[in-house]
Amino acid sequence: MIPGPFLLYLGHSDDPVAIKTSRGLAEFRRVDCIGEFRHDDCPLTLGLPRMGMDEAAAAGARTLVLGIASAGGRLGPDLVADAAAALESGMNVAAGLHERLRKESRLVALAAERGLQLFDVRDPPEDLSVGKGYPRAGRRLLTVGTDCSVGKMYSTLALTRALQARGVAADFRATGQTGILIAGEGVPVDAVVSDFISGAIERLAPARDDNGWDLIEGQGSLFHPSFAGVSLGLLHGAQPEALVLCDEPGRAHMRGIPGRPTPGLADTLERNLEAARVTSPQVRAVGICLNTSKLDRDEALRLCARTEDELGLPCTDPVAFGVEAIIDRLLCVEPSTPATIASR
């Protein structure tokens, strides 16, 4: 386990999506977050006290979390310099980037000298097996998306907590750096060799016989040319009983690919169901989660209602309106009324 409290890193970031790991920790493990570190040119904030390295260490922070998504997942000179400053101040350093902290000799030497640790969250297990796709006991839900960074992790966590609040056994199964930092464990599926992706998910969510649910964090999109392989491996390894589709309305194009439009909800849902049937023939869709953070409340409610009418599935923003209607569909109970949803 990575020792807290945490100092969350924003660095020089000016893209809200780029700080999603720090934002996720601030949202779901806020009690463990003591402050945020950002340079003067960073216009973003998580609403935490802004602190320097020495100040954070003096306040009790034990680990700097480099919670940003840099280009190509690389450790640039600024990140290395700031990580070194954290070590010099007496803090451990954690990161989920593709380029590992342990590859930086300067950081390795500093950590050893001061008795501190470097945590590379994106290290997959070394003894993974290929997936087999054989039926296994248990109830599993997987979130899927029209694109990357549309709210799959937030939705999965919200659904997990909602089930737990109803007294249903439910476990969040993390597959990305942010989810792993929040949960304290998981498999960084985008760092797994492609042959072993489905096997990694079979291991992450093994057979269970307590009638509880494993809620598996989705990654990427079947429609994204860069990351569809990860998405497909997740679908096959999860053997989901249920799918929840996630989307951010109004995106101009697929993330990182200007000129390539995002797919429609109905087409995305059908393609994911089709792919999931390879290992889970009875899979069903149970809801739509929209990230409506850029819309006002009334506009968001109208969009959710319209989407629900068009697709015949409960539709909500899990942050703004909760996920009770989707849980009702998942558990096959009487659905929440529109008035109930709107009042949340």
Can you describe what's shown?
The chain is of the alpha/beta class. The chain has two domains: 6-120, 3-Layer(aba) Sandwich (Rossmann fold), CATH 3.40.50; 139-342, Rossmann fold (3-Layer(aba) Sandwich), CATH 3.40.50.300. 34% of the residues lie in helices and 15% in strands. The chain has twelve helices and eleven strands. The protein has helices at residues 20-28, 53-59, 77-88, 105-114, 152-165, 177-183, 197-204, 228-238, 265-276, 297-311, 324-331, 338-342, and strands spanning 6-11, 33-38, 63-66, 92-95, 118-120, 139-145, 170-173, 213-216, 242-247, 284-290, 315-316. The strands form two sheets. It has a six-stranded parallel beta sheet with strand order 7-8-6-9-10-11, sandwiched between helices. A five-stranded parallel beta sheet has the order 2-1-3-4-5, sandwiched between helices. β9 (242-247), α9 and β10 form a beta-alpha-beta unit. The longest helix has 15 residues, at 297-311. The radius of gyration is 20 Å and the shape is globular. Residues 337-344 have low confidence and may be disordered.
Number of domains: 2
Helix-and-strand structural type? alpha/beta
CATH superfamily of the largest domain: P-loop containing nucleotide triphosphate hydrolases
How much of the sequence lies in strands comes to: 15-25%
Provide the CATH architecture of the largest domain: 3-Layer(aba) Sandwich
Number of strands: 11
Please mark out the parts with pLDDT under 50 across 5 or more consecutive residues, or reply none.
Answer: 337-344
CATH topology of the largest domain: Rossmann fold
Strand order of the largest sheet: 7-8-6-9-10-11
Q: What series of H and E elements makes up the topology?
A: EHEHEHEHEEHEHHEHEHEHEHH
The helix content, as a percent range, equals 25-40%
Mean pLDDT: 93
- CA-atom Rg in angstroms: 20 Å
Largest sheet: 6 strands, parallel
Helix count from the secondary structure assignment:
12
Task: Specify the overall morphology.
Answer: globular
